[in-house]
Prior knowledge:
By secondary structure, this protein is of the alpha/beta class. It has helices at residues 12-18, 25-46, 53-68, 88-96, 130-139, 181-186, and strands at residues 78-82, 101-106, 147-151, 162-167, 188-198, 208-216, 225-232. The protein has a domain at 73-232: Rossmann fold.
Amino acid sequence: MDNKFLLPKKSERIILLQRIDLASPFEKKLRKLFGRYIFSNFITKYFLNKKNIASNYYETMLNEYFSIKHLINKEDKLFLSIGSGIGGLEAIINERLDNKSFYFIERNYISKKVKYGWGGMNNAEAYNNFDLQKQFLENNGMNKNNFYVFDYDRDEFPIMKFDIITSLFSLDYHYDFNLYIDYLKKVSRNDTKIIFDTIRADYFLKIFKNVEIINTELDTVHKSKRIVCRNFI
Ligand SMILES: C[S@@+](CC[C@H](N)C(=O)[O-])C[C@H]1O[C@@H](n2cnc3c(N)ncnc32)[C@H](O)[C@@H]1O
């Protein structure tokens, strides 16, 4: 992956919708001018400048990897990603660390009205495509026996004890953490690291014995914090 990902054809649009910070200043202006509906359904479909997305997405995901690298030990083998998008972060982890298995819970559609905000229990936003995600992961070095993709809307979730659970700008950023709380209790040990972005870090002091802020993001719409939580109360 020489400083850029190998992107499947037509994946640029979902990557941009998943990571709106990859839009150029001009595209961001168009989004402001025409609104989110026209931006997600027309502008990104027909007028997207695809040129730098492979390298910019790689750089963004590499920085995300650096933000959590210190939390990953050699013994950590089982990874769960909730709302991973196409999987850039996991491709980077996989490239650097041996013998990992990756489980993904995502959604397999693109909502018509992409709203990059807090949806609470409403939980209706999605912008992913499983064919593109699987192709992306294989293109970027992941062996197809090492990853499993589960559809939030159709599949039974995997039941096992995970070592690391990540959800960047998804769980408790778009939709309420409580949608997953019972499931996460089932699939975590006391030392499982659960890493996600939230605007209400303090709230999690009531849910976990151990909550640590690892990053504060002042540029996102919500000025969120990245936290790592361990050990449900
Ligand atoms: C803003 S994107 C972030 C993608 C990726 N984590 C990243 O940082 O680039 C949010 C992702 O959450 C997914 N999503 C939305 N609702 C979900 C749910 N209930 N469970 C799992 N994933 C969900 C969307 O399809 C989308 O890919």
